[in-house]
């Protein structure tokens, strides 16, 4: 594969010596050093034709990258090794068997005591013995005592696609719920034992499950032309839900009479805040000032701030815009620098060439890019909502950058600054974090503008297990000041606002590491280590190939942080910020999990003890798509197979909880998994829950007492058709499938997982 060095992120619980000390202190060390240098030289000689870490030509990058074999050779030379006569063997094993993991001294005992389940293909939620699940809110359920629930009969008959149905949907739980966050009542710092407000994202719509006779029409826009009120309904089916819930007899339920209840939709006004506010690229005919936006779309994962606000991440917003081909045609002959720059800005997050997925362009010109070329720049942000203040307008936070945000999770740093971790959920995109300029104030109202000023960073994962957070900052980064639009003399950026609007391009120029769909990124509140869930990337190739992806050339060969070709099952990276300081600009990292089936005959289960000296370092197939690694845990017969890690969370003991979205290696449904990150069972991953047909499991949020796990079941039965479902979740019988927020609890009301 051209080098596995990216896995060599381990520490030994033995005395360590640098290479120069080995020469002085150990008998026969000249031989050790000679063997190490021989290995390094061999790698370096093979590496020149395998430049595996470059996503743009080297001369166009701020930080030039080197072939992976060269990086591996350098790392071997720099690495410290064990003292004693086994040093040479350790070097060889380190190269050939790089799956060694750190085990913490005096590590905590395993606090996960539930009986793991097997993966399931049942059309229901399956949970361990002694647990139960129940529906809290489901698509079409009313949030108001004055609005009825949407019945199956009315859904199949299309009665929701009327003016009344659209109006009702603005007070009903929306479609395809993704993130969920829990906010205790009466205040953020209360225990939330029996009352809380939840915020839930509604990401997108499955046409086949909500539009009668949808298959007779070529596009959603065509459908809307035939059924105009369907457009009105759709605008209210997405966005967010804010709702009060209360616990009765151990189960949570919605409080329909609550003044906290509200829907945030494509009709809701948002304020634009931060450095890009009023920038010319955010100005449109409807809002010439560039200060407000109507609506939000494709709200995926999310996070809660330390002062009790909700951060909702706009992800695949390109799907709501149409006719980019028309814009290209209109500007194809233009020599105006603004036109050339405009097209280039769009190409790094490009709208649909023809019809959009949602079809809103049928009646609203702002979703036709040829007519409103700036409108897409007003989407793709992190939105902030105050669940405690129903009258407060939600805001889009431009300081956090514009890209396909999968998440926006926070931690209060030791120095009281707020740190927001984010992933750009697309193949070969980047990991980001934002550090607030000001410290968090004890008075929550004084934090209203805290996320408007600060520094956005993008991650580079180095070959030696270190990493850099590079400031995505026009004033301090010369490469951003001097960059030109490719093939022109036109400045790529003129100010920080343009850097934030086109954050992906800035990441290219800074030399960020292209990742395998970085989805959720979250800091462990117990250890402060940061975990990056990379869902998958089947476009990673075993050969040395370059492809155009999202407006730039990408070298698709596996790299230091994304080590497998055809990465079908995904992986998780563990980051340790320098000094355990989440505001640090440097870090160390290691692979925590290579997902897959540990018992598959097609791959190897790699552990810290396994001897892989027979691996051919020069082979491009040295690491296979089906090879698995579970943080060094040695018992492949015990761990659960897992694929497509998506959202993540932590319980009070610091155990990592993972929900999945994608194919599973044994053909079962998506589910929920838990794994210790420290202690003797670090890496011992167990399945906790399995979802129904054709669904993904989202959310993964614990109540403060850990007695309820909140999970969103998104798009159950998504391969069916309205009226002839292939899932009846959650109501059973012959009912239509409904995206649903469920609660999972122990029947004895003790904390989940323990």
From TrEMBL:
Lineage start: Bacteria, Pseudomonadati, Pseudomonadota, Alphaproteobacteria, Emcibacterales
Composition skew (Polar residues), residue ranges: 724-734
PANTHER family recorded: DUF839 DOMAIN-CONTAINING PROTEIN, SLR8030 PROTEIN
Organism: Emcibacter nanhaiensis
Positions of region (Disordered): 720-754
Name of the protein in question: PhoX family phosphatase
Highest taxon of the lineage: Bacteria
Biased composition (Basic and acidic residues): 745-754
Pfam families named among the record's database cross-references: PhoX
